[in-house]
Design goal:
- This protein is an alpha/beta fold.
- It folds into 2 domains: 2-41 and 282-370, Glycerate kinase, domain 1 (Rossmann fold); 56-274, Glycerate kinase, domain 2 (Alpha-Beta Complex).
- The protein is 36% helix and 18% strand.
- It has 14 helices and 13 strands.
- The protein has a 6-stranded mixed beta sheet with strand order 3-4-5-6-9-10, with helices on both faces. A 5-stranded parallel beta sheet has the order 2-1-11-12-13, sandwiched between helices.
- β12 (324-331), α13 and β13 (345-348) form a beta-alpha-beta unit.
- The longest helix is centred in the middle third of the chain and has 19 residues, at 224-242.
- The radius of gyration is 21 Å and the shape is globular.
Length: 381
């Protein structure tokens, strides 16, 4: 049995669409081989799709939230009978929700994610929330999330600060929500928040949220020092209030620093999204049956080997002596690097327009696997 488990190809294919294209290419090359698909996510876009595949019994529910720009939009989440809910930040504060001309992380708020969490926390049967972080448009250190949860961020005159990273420099006082608000009642009943992401970056510094991700969100190089300074001030004030110094923890820079705020204010537990998904019993059961793994993502690079699902799958394959074949829009690793990581073969897609991404991927898979014999013992020749 061939296990198909790709991540999304950012900007062109979701993980579900990528899995479908890879399955089609596999069938063209080897019509008689059995396969099963598990679309993957590192915590960003596609996180709920991955959860749905692992736990199809979950009930989908919906609320409305304010995206970084524009009017309210629907945002789905999943709830299980065991009291665990699953949500995805990209559905409320995602980069793909913002037109390119409006991508200004200095002024965009993560408020929508806080509204999503507040709606889930208001359900008394929910005691655990797993929130996927990633692919977001914001760089406000999670301040918008806290504001939507009822936390008041005030300037020296006692006025609410403006939204976005630019408002962080004005925060002088923080006031907790009302005791009967959903976030506070969630905490009072022992509620537990888990944040899943793919990065190990701290909040601040050369390897932190701003200098690693702000450019991808639309910030210009000359904006970076001020964005960093604003986050630094935010960290000083929030940590002084909570008594928790968490800015240096790996992963607190995730989603523009949203992980930092959730860990500092709510005591959220951080997990690596890819590891968390691949350790799920349902995935492990399919992995035990697998004779080969097919995966992929938009760009295969060094970051893929440090937190992303493609890197985890390569390591899992190496541990189990399974071939792992990856397909990517761009490959930024040398052959020595990807072989050392555990990949059996890596293929880069030929140039193509975004509208042809699915067809190009399935064709690349078919051509690559046509000359590869995937034996039942998990070996390739």
């Amino acid at each position: 049995m061939i296990l198909i488990a790709p991540n999304g190809f950012k900007g062109t294919l979701s993980s579900v669409q990528a899995a479908r294209a890879i399955a089609l290419g596999l069938h063209r090359a080897h019509p008689t081989l059995d396969s099963t698909s598990f679309p993957m996510s590192d915590g960003g876009r596609g996180f709920l799709d991955a959860i749905r595949r692992l736990a199809p019994h979950l009930r989908q529910q919906q609320t409305t939230v304010h995206p970084p720009v524009g009017r309210r939009i629907p945002a789905a989440f999943l709830v299980g009978e065991d009291g665990t809910a699953y949500a995805e930040m990209a559905l409320a504060s995602g980069l793909d929700l913002v037109p390119e001309t409006a991508r200004r992380p200095a002024h965009l708020s993560s408020r929508g994610t806080g509204e999503l969490l507040r709606s889930i926390m208001a359900r008394p049967q929910v005691h655990t929330i797993v929130l996927g972080l990633g692919d977001t448009a914001t760089m406000d250190g999670g301040a918008g999330v806290l504001q939507a949860l009822g936390v008041r961020l005030l300037d020296r005159h006692g006025n609410p600060v403006p939204p976005g990273n630019a408002g962080l420099s004005q925060v002088e006082r923080i006031e907790a929500p009302e005791p009967d608000s959903p976030p506070e009642t969630f905490r009072a009943r022992g509620g537990h928040l888990i944040v899943a992401c793919d990065v190990l970056h701290p909040l601040l510094g050369p390897g932190g949220a701003v200098y690693t991700f702000a450019g991808q969100k639309g910030a210009t190089p000359d904006e970076l020092p001020q964005l960093e300074a604003n986050l630094h001030h935010w960290a000083e004030v929030l940590e002084a209030v909570t008594g928790r110094r968490v800015r240096d923890l790996p992963g607190t820079g995730a989603a523009g620093g949203t992980a930092f705020a959730l860990v500092a204010w709510l005591g959220a537990e951080q997990v690596q999204g890819a590891r968390w998904l691949t350790e799920h019993p349902r995935f492990q059961a399919e992995l035990t049956r697998a004779t080969a793994l097919l995966t992929g993502e938009g760009q295969l690079d060094e970051q893929s080997l440090h937190g992303k699902s493609t890197g985890f799958l390569a390591a899992l394959g190496a541990q189990r002596h399974l071939p792992v074949v990856a397909f990517a829009g761009r490959v930024r690793l040398t052959e020595a690097q990807w072989r050392a990581a555990g990949f059996t073969a890596v293929y880069e897609l030929p140039p193509h327009p975004p509208s042809q991404a699915s067809r190009t991927l399935s064709g690349c898979v078919a051509n690559a696997l046509a000359g590869m014999v995937l034996k039942p013992d998990g070996q390739t020749v």
